[in-house]
Structure formats: C-alpha cells, structure tokens
Design a protein that fits this description.
CATH class of the largest domain: Mainly Beta
Number of strands: 6
Distance between the termini: 71 Å
Strand order of the largest sheet: 1-2-5
InterPro entries: DUF4307
Keywords: Membrane, Transmembrane, Transmembrane helix
Oligomer: single chain
CATH topology of the largest domain: Immunoglobulin-like
Protein name: DUF4307 domain-containing protein
Number of domains: 2
Number of helices: 2
Organism: Flavimobilis marinus
C-alpha cells in the first residue's frame, strides 16, 4: 500500500509491528473467551458429587466389606452400587446403599456385600444422585 507524502506527514504511517500486536491481542482474546466458556460449561454440567473406592476386605467366603469415600453437596442424596467379583470376574455379590442428604464433607462408608461364593475383590460400581426430596 502506498501512502501519499501529505497524509504520511499528517497522520504517520502504521508500522507492520503494530498490526502484528493487534492480531496477537485479538487471538488471545478469542482464546480467553473459549477457555472461559469451556470452564463454565464443565462446571455447569459436572455431577454434584465425587466418589472413590478406598478398599475392600474379604471377611469370609460369604462376605466382602467394601470401603469408599463420598464428597457431595449437602442437599444431594445418592444411591451407590457395590459389587463383589470372583477370580474369573463373575459377579458373586451385590449390594446397594442409600446415602442421605446432609453433610457436604468427605465421608467414608464401609458396606457389607454378601456373596454366593468366595470373592477376590469388592468394588464400588457407581453412584447416582436421587431426585430431590427422596
């Protein structure tokens, strides 16, 4: 682009460096907007609870104790499924436990899972939030 000398003297010439800075700022702004949107979306769609297996103890051929941790919002009640497995990964025991709404602190639960034969492992199979008021 050619600039006439009168206009260049009056207004100055825009340097290529200034254009690169403008493009860089617009790019950073767009990336920041995308990042903020992603964080907001992930927070809005995340579950109001976190559960983790802690461990298990094979008490007898008929019983496994499964221990797990729960952190949840105070107004959330959960139902959790626990499973005992044989060496061939067949399900040999099952239990379901309801965790009432209340505390929002980390809680540890130990649940007895009756088995039809000796199990080699016990685990938390998953939890689901119960509808409000349950």
């Amino acid at each position: 682009m050619t600039v006439t000398p009168d206009l260049a003297d009056r207004y100055g010439v825009r340097s290529p460096r200034r254009r690169a800075q403008t493009v860089a700022l617009w790019t950073l702004g767009a990336l920041g907007t995308v990042a903020a949107g992603w964080i907001g979306w992930s927070m809005a769609t995340s579950e109001p609870y976190v559960v983790n297996d802690y461990g298990f103890v094979v008490v007898s051929p008929e019983l496994v104790e499964v221990t797990f941790d729960v952190t949840k919002d105070a107004d959330v009640a959960l139902t959790c499924r626990l499973t005992a497995l044989s060496p061939s990964y067949a399900q040999v025991g099952f239990a379901e436990v309801t965790i009432p709404a209340g505390s929002d602190e980390l809680q540890r639960f130990t649940v007895d899972v009756p088995t039809s034969e000796e199990a080699t492992t016990g685990l938390l199979d998953g939890c689901e939030a119960l509808p409000a008021g349950s």
